[in-house]
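Lab notes, practical 5.
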Amino acid sequence: MKKIIILFIIFSFIFYSTACSEQAVLSEDERIKDYETTEVVAVIKLETTENIYSPADKQSRFSAGHMHSAAVLEDNSLWGWGWNHSGESGFDPYDFVIFEPQKIMEDVLSVSCGTQFTLAIKTDNTLWGWGLNTQNELGGGSTRDREYIPVMIMEDVKVAVAGRGFAMALKTDGSLWAWGMDRGIPSLPSSQEPFMVTSGVIDISLGTNHAAALKSDGTLWIWGIWDINFDDSEEEEKEKHNFDENDIPPTAIINDVIAVNSGYIHCLYIKSDGSLWELSESAHGQIMDDAAAVSGGNAFSLAVKTDGTLWGWGVNTDYQLGDGTDENRASPMQILSDVVAVSAGNNHTIALKTDDTYWAWGSNSFGAIGIEVWEAQTRPVQILNNIDITAKAPVHEVMPPSEYFNIPDDFQTEMKVVQFEKEDLMILETDGTITRTGTPGLFEDSSVSDWTGIIDIAVGQSHVVGLRADGTVVAMSSSRWDSEETNVSHWRDIIAISVTYMNTVGLRADGTVITTRAALNMPDSGQANVGDWTDIVAVAAGSTFTLGIKNDGTIVSTGNNSFGQLNVSSWTDIIALSANQCHTVGLRSNGTVLATGENNHGQLNVQDWRNIVQIGTGFDHTVGLKSDGTVAAAGNNVNGQCDVSHWTDIVAISAGHADTVGLKSDGTIVGAGVGWDN
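Output from the prediction step:
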């Protein structure tokens, strides 16, 4: 996710902006003056009325999240698909991508997909959640950092909304509850258990760092990050309640509102006359008339009008507006007809038509649309039309609190090939065992025959590391080298590894990172300075540097930057990284590739690559696996290591020092470069 700063409209803007001159704005006396940061607070003083909540509408039956999606079908079965790194799609962690929708659970009323976690309300009004929990997103339903199976959070819930690191729920009595990262109020600490915010609420919506609530009297309240200077009276309130520099308490900003929905950095609301309005970083004004439903995404918006037409505007770089182009739209344009509801995600969209068919478009790099292709869909395509609705939901066994991982009897992983030098290869089989093939080199006397339950392997110049499904790590090294880089036996709760030369990096389940210290014959360039890293979802080890992908798609780095290999601060939407001696390559969610560092052999010439699903870096060359099973390569080709354009049916790639290896779907190996007949 792009780095976002939420900008709210200051009070003076609400009073004097020409864009809202016709709005009925609440007086200063009607605003909150007694907000307290106690454990249980009623921050909005309004008497609860009866029958304040109407049943969930069609829009709550499906949800487009950051990179995953979910929908409730007519039999009240819940189906999920897309990115599943933290189990947010409702399945075990070995299936990082769920392309085809899978049934998660039965008897579900509504669903909401957040950033790497999901919430669902069942027909008995119990609220369930699963996925990432490092910020207490699951509201006390679990003490673990990730949940791959649904856990119950609370009872008597009518509406629940998942955001980025925090969540909120409306109970059947109209009370509003919050939990997670600062509970949507930045001056408050993270809360594992839900706490009551207010009562009399009929609708809620969450942005990246803000929340909006619609009260039964038609008033719209907003709170969260406020990045504009306070006036004198507001400064007194900020000091009185010890607010952070930019956060505000719940504040009533407008009335006569009947619906609200927040995008990542903006808020949309519909008034009783059907007019649709938008609050954003730089404006507050009317967008259109005759609006029936609205949904905000990552810098784009969609609205359903009363005649069933669907309109969209904003950022369109990933075809999220579905108009067949990637051109941004400053004003609404029509996309579909006969639509009853819509949900906007990070860079994809899902719509429900009047005939109860689901349609989706935009980025599908990690299956967020629910079709088995990597390419973005430029126009709406029908989804959920070829599933077996009679399929049974999986039967889950609750894991003990002390465990992060659960190894099923039918455990499978993705096949993967790694190489040491020339033809010395290891293949990770789908059953978690390793097959060794070729001619052993440095590791002639080493064995991995006793390695089982392996979900990933990685190799450096002198060592091999394996990640087990239980989160432990095994390693071996050549006796010719210092073995500090294999000092990983004490590592626990590891979910990903990266190795190059003598640098070993592990990603923990809680989003922190661990490394071994620099080997005796390797320079210490600060590559192990990762102790303060948090919210990391992937790691990459360079020879004397280390990189991590944060959960918003940005990059952190440390170590040697002599060739600019750490010049990644501007990169966004990164889903995978690979690094080697002096260059770094990043894979974006739309299948394109970025590169930085040394380019003496053209190893950074990847700007034209498209539809890439896996990347690899050799000493001075770069390779990319395309979604159609072909391979692209750039860089030094003196040994033929880039002669891969004729390869087909490839499911995994590995870049060595001066060669490239591909694993075909039938389990056979192809190679190019040193040690291979090109």
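Observations recorded by the TA: The radius of gyration is 26 Å. The longest strand covers residues 97-105.
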